[in-house]
Amino acid sequence: MATIYETLRADIITSMKARDNATTLALRTADAAIKRASMDANKDIDDAMTIATLRKAVKNLSDARVEFDKGGRADLVAANTTEIALLEKYLPKGLDPAKVEAIVVEVIAATGAQSKKEMGKVIAALKQRPEAPLLDFGAVSKIVQAKLP
Q: Among 23, 45, 22, which residue's Cα sits nearest to residue 33?
């Protein structure tokens, strides 16, 4: 089975052959970001790194889309929306919110966290879980805050 990165690389070649310049540019940009993350971490490219890099790219594009919308740039909003949709197809589907909440409750109990001051300990333990690549830690952070007094 091909990794997410291998699939992305194959799709770059396919888009180049189809002369789909917008897709090729978006995928090459993502490829460069993944390679940069690999070099910065001095690690081989794996699915976790690819997912983290693509999530960061999607977040940046979403933030930019909001600003373009405020500025009345419908052309750039449309371009960002298309690029976000393209990158999201490489990301795994998130877990059910009830499942995420159950995992958070379980980790809070396992770490013995009693207050928001210990939130870092809970987040660190969540990052060690096998489900970590599927978790959106922005949303998880809000759940942890709500569960801790």
A: 45
As a 3-state breakdown, the chain gives helix, strand, coil percent values, each rounded to 5, of 75, 0, 25
Query: Which two three-digit tokens encode residue 20?
Result: 């789909």
* Rounded-to-integer distance, Cα 107 and Cα 129, Å: 9
pLDDT tens per residue across all 149 residues of the chain: 678 899 999 999 999 999 999 999 999 999 999 999 999 989 888 888 898 899 899 999 999 999 998 988 999 989 999 999 999 999 887 777 888 888 888 888 888 878 788 888 888 888 888 777 777 777 788 888 887 78
Amino acid (1-letter code) at residue 114: Q
| Token representation of residue 144 | 């942890």
d(CA 133, CA 90): 12
Q: Is the dihedral of CA 48, 51, 54, 60 positive or negative?
A: negative
User: Which single residue is written with the structure tokens 């490219």?
Assistant: 45
